[in-house]
Specification:
This protein has about 300 residues and is α+β, with helices and mostly antiparallel strands. It is built from eight helices and 15 strands. It is globular, with a radius of gyration of 18 Å. The two termini are about 25 Å apart.
């Protein structure tokens, strides 16, 4: 059985638009999904990111958070015939509150995975107490002191670490120093689950708002790294990638380092196949469609 990836919405966040893309419509609220990704078809199912613990955490930022019953992890897993105890591995692209907040729902027999650099940064205080809360950081430390409950990656950009056959992680950086990409090998090419290296593919990569040079992405309004680090991370995420999955936007089809298609109906659709180019709506000229899908 081939590896499959299922985007699941762990909750909606309403925030200022300029927090997504630098200088984009300041003062205008926008609502985005907070996505996790369920990987099936391998030795064991893998969950990438777990969403937020609660809505109260967002009040200090003036944001709104919503999670319906259909957005719970239990509901998502049930759509695939799985229960919480079936998840042996949780991988975090990074551990901001909207990505690691529901780790506590899983037993210590589930191994939570993240980069060592990300855990160090979370405990450093450099982003204040909001994005890395004491509660989530302490939970990770508790797992660190429980045999088998935490795995720390030491990827530094020169190598990857394998999780199961066909699934590995590499350092991506950009959003935080310890951000990683989860790489999944599929029949039609590499899937890059890239976390928050970008928020809004349209305004950052497809039609960048602020940049004129070719292949030059616009950065987000929420990052812990330099502008160059963030741009480099975005370009690295596109390199060698066929399918790009980020945490707050629909899946994208990639060719030649550019986004050429979108799959807007993939989120929370158990039957959607994000690993098949034919599922994507192409952005290129119609006469090039057959050529691009075959690439």
């Amino acid at each position: 059985m081939a590896l499959k990836i299922h985007p699941i919405n762990n909750g909606n966040i309403t925030m200022d638009s300029s927090g997504l893309v630098l200088f984009r419509n300041p003062g205008q609220p926008t609502t985005i999904p907070t996505l996790g990704f369920l990987i099936t078809g391998g030795e064991e199912p893998i969950l990438v990111d777990t969403g937020s613990r609660n809505s109260e955490q967002y009040e200090r930022f003036g944001m709104l958070h919503e999670r319906t019953r259909e957005m719970t992890i239990e509901h998502h897993l049930a759509q695939h015939g799985l229960k919480m105890k079936d998840i042996r591995h949780i991988i975090h692209t990074h551990v901001h509150i909207d990505h690691s907040g529901q780790d506590y729902l899983f037993p210590m027999s589930t191994t939570v995975m993240l980069s060592r650099r990300e855990l160090q940064f979370a405990a450093s205080g450099l982003m204040g107490p909001g994005m890395y809360t004491a509660t989530e950081t302490k939970h990770l430390i508790d797992r660190l002191h429980t045999r088998g409950a935490l795995r720390l990656f030491d990827v530094d950009g020169t190598f990857e670490e394998e999780i199961i056959p066909g699934v590995a992680v590499r350092l991506s950086g950009g959003h935080t120093p310890g951000s990683i990409s989860v790489l999944v090998e599929t029949d039609e090419g590499l899937v890059n689950i890239a976390g928050d290296i970008a928020y809004h593919l349209g305004d950052q990569l497809i039609s960048p708002l602020l940049d004129q040079a070719a292949h030059e992405p616009t950065i987000t309004g929420n990052h812990a790294m330099s502008t160059l680090d963030e741009k480099r991370a975005i370009k690295r995420a596109l390199s060698g990638t066929r399918f790009l999955l980020i945490s707050h936007d629909a899946p994208a089809l990639v060719s030649g380092g550019k986004i050429i298609g979108r799959f807007d109906g993939a989120i929370d659709n158990p039957k959607a196949d994000v690993t098949t180019a034919a599922s994507y709506e192409l952005l290129a000229r119609p006469q090039l469609a057959d050529e691009i899908v075959a690439a």
